[in-house]
Amino acid sequence: MPEEYLSSIKQYLRVTFSDHDELLIQTISDGMDEIKGMVYQGLVFNFTPVEPYDGRINALLRDYVRYSWNGSSQYFAEDYRRTITRLSLEIGASKVVPV
After folding, report:
1. Are the C-beta atoms of 8 and 45 separated by less than 8 Å?
2. CB 76 within 8 A of CB 31
3. DSSP assignment, residue 17?
4. Which terminus of the chain is more exposed, N or C, with fewer CB under 10 A?
5. pLDDT in tens, the chain (99 residues)
6. pLDDT of residue 75
7. What is the rounded end-to-end Cα distance, in angstroms, of the chain?
8. C-alpha to C-alpha distance for 64 and 96, rounded to whole angstroms
């Protein structure tokens, strides 16, 4: 699944060469795991948005890869704490089943 994000991520990072495609794919996969750990472990990434929050999750993934690409991934969680918390609450609320 990380492969389907590669073109979009490369465009976002303005990377025009293919020398580091494998590294970017691994970074995308790592970012998915990190975001799942921060937001919701059962999170499913949808390149084409299905859920109302999918676009924001994809943007968060792009930003994680950008931070990692620039060697600053250790600052990501702190810098995006608000977004991560908001998404976590929104996804959690969507999982509540009314009785």
Report:
1. no
2. no
3. -
4. C
5. 788 899 999 999 999 999 999 999 999 999 999 999 999 998 989 988 888 888 999 999 999 999 999 999 999 999 999 999 999 999 888 877 777
6. 97
7. 35
8. 28
98 SS3 class = coil
The burial class, CB within 10 Å (0-12 / 13-18 / 19+), for 91 is middle
Contact 84, 56 (CB under 8 A): no
Alpha-helical runs (H) found in 1-99: 2-13, 21-38, 54-69, 76-79, 81-94
- The confidence score (pLDDT) of residue 72 equals 96
Task: Please provide the DSSP assignment of 37-52 as one string.
Answer: HHT-TT----SS--ST
Confidence (pLDDT) at 31: 96
Dist. CA 65–CA 71, nearest whole Å: 10
Query: Cα separations (Å) of 97 from 21, 26, 27, 63, 94?
Result: 41, 35, 35, 32, 8
Q: Residues, the chain, total?
A: 99
